[in-house]
Specification:
This protein is of the alpha/beta class and 430 residues long. The chain contains 14 helices and 20 strands. It has a 6-stranded parallel sheet, sandwiched between helices. A 6-stranded mixed sheet has the order 6-5-4-9-12-13, with helices on both faces. A two-stranded antiparallel sheet has the order 1-2.
Length: 430
């Protein structure tokens, strides 16, 4: 037997799997963590990718805005890298009063003061002015034109009130845009809701009844219309600089990429593939996937990353067990409300008629429930009603989920275990 201790929320659950049935253990690939993060940041700023060093871009007295990911990305640990970036700007002649931070909320809600502390850290909160982006308020956005795909582009006016816009964030796989980080800090990060929805609706198939667009998926950039539209929108603004981070499978800082907002990011994407792209020989009858614990399973909306990645390791019509505690199961309500649709085609047509990101993610999740036998483990029985509306069977223990799964599996079924399902992408060897 092989024992696994899998994270769920802020605790763990254990399970024993017969070694003879274990097909793959997907953790992510080994990669050394950075031993000195401040030193690595300084080296990246002084030796950027396809850009002049940051010290040669900014001029003393100029105004700089740092775009920073929100609380749903707190595992990126911006509180650990922001002080070094700000201190370097000070050294280059940009004082604290000429630096501001914009929280890249996209369509998410604004931070509480406590969440600003969690994301940015006490030192930065005391030193630097922090703004919360509001995607719903058209008055605070500037119209800068249309993309070639017809997306009307509205960006926060504050981005144009500074001399330099610097994007920060982390690069991971993204279930629609190929990879996170990079241009996503600007679109959807500090864009108006109309721009966000116009871009994200490209994730639906051009043909009604075909559901999601297969070109919009994790790890895919070439031909991905959502990514290409995002790139075009960000290029309209042309940020001055980018500082992005790549993480080990265990969530430690692995690499800093800095420089040109797009080319440095692309370089970082290659490192993500080395760490989090996991080759597998074949798909399994049963996949057991933990998001990686809190906050990656804080709600079902965040848990959808794990749901999507796990399907890449599972046979068609196979069984998937998800460990998703979801203490904030109803957050955001605009996501969970969409599970009022039982029929998939009716659901798709409703999303097309009133597109939003939460609506699309809800549809994609419902599609998974139709295509696979899905069982979710949560320690909160009150969550059952929501999961059952999605089409997932819900239980409170991993052992119970395993016994339930066996009822629909063949003898000697194969098993793949994903310990970090929110970030790792299984890739079939070709």
């Amino acid at each position: 037997m092989k024992n696994f201790n899998l994270k769920i929320g802020k605790t763990k659950m254990s399970i024993d799997i017969p070694a003879s049935q274990l097909l793959h253990e997907i953790h992510g690939n080994d990669y050394p963590a950075l031993s000195d993060l401040p030193k690595a940041i300084i080296e990246a700023l002084e030796n950027p990718i396809d850009s002049k060093p940051l010290r040669d871009i900014v001029t003393p007295g100029q105004k700089v805005m740092l775009v920073v990911s929100d609380i749903t990305r707190v595992w990126l640990k911006p509180s650990q890298f922001l002080p070094t970036i700000v201190n370097c700007l000070n050294e280059y002649g940009i004082q604290d009063e000429n630096i501001c931070i914009m929280i890249a909320l996209g369509s998410h809600r604004a931070h509480t003061p406590e969440e600003d502390l969690l994301v940015c850290g006490e030192e930065i909160v005391k030193r630097i002015k922090i703004y919360q982006h509001d995607s719903q308020n058209m008055d605070i956005h500037k119209y800068i034109g249309k993309s070639s795909r017809g997306t009307e582009v509205y960006i926060s006016k504050k981005a144009f009130e500074v001399d330099h816009l610097i994007l920060t964030g982390g690069i991971i796989y993204h279930l629609m845009a190929g990879f996170g980080g990079g241009r996503k800090s600007l679109m959807p990060g500090i864009s108006h809701d109309k721009t966000i929805q116009g871009n994200h609706c490209l994730c639906l198939s051009p043909e009604v009844g075909q559901g999601t667009n297969p070109l919009c998926q994790s790890g895919k950039l070439a031909g991905n219309p959502m990514y290409e539209d995002m790139y075009e929108i960000c290029d309209m603004v042309s940020p001055s600089f980018l500082v992005n981070f790549v993480y080990t499978a265990q969530g430690e800082f692995a690499r800093v990429v800095a420089g040109h907002w797009h080319k440095a990011w692309l370089d970082g994407c290659q490192t993500v593939e080395q760490i989090l792209g996991v080759n597998i020989e074949q798909k399994a009858d049963l996949v057991i996937a933990s998001a990686g614990g809190f906050p990656k399973d804080i709600n079902l909306y965040q848990g959808c990353k794990t749901i999507d990645n796990a399907t890449a390791a599972c046979k068609d019509k196979g069984t998937i067990i998800f460990l998703l505690d979801c203490p904030d199961i109803y957050e955001p309500k605009v996501f969970t409300d969409w599970f009022r649709y039982d029929d998939l085609l009716e659901f798709e047509n409703a999303v097309r008629a009133n597109f939003s990101i939460p609506a699309f993610i809800a549809y994609k999740t419902k599609q998974t429930a139709v295509l696979y036998n899905c069982i979710v483990v949560t320690t909160i029985p009150e969550n059952f009603a929501v999961f059952e509306k999605v089409g997932f069977k819900a239980v409170t223990s991993l052992d119970e989920a395993y016994e339930l799964a066996k009822q629909s599996l063949p003898n000697n079924f194969s098993v793949t275990v994903m310990t970090n399902g929110a970030n790792t992408l299984p890739i079939i060897k070709k």
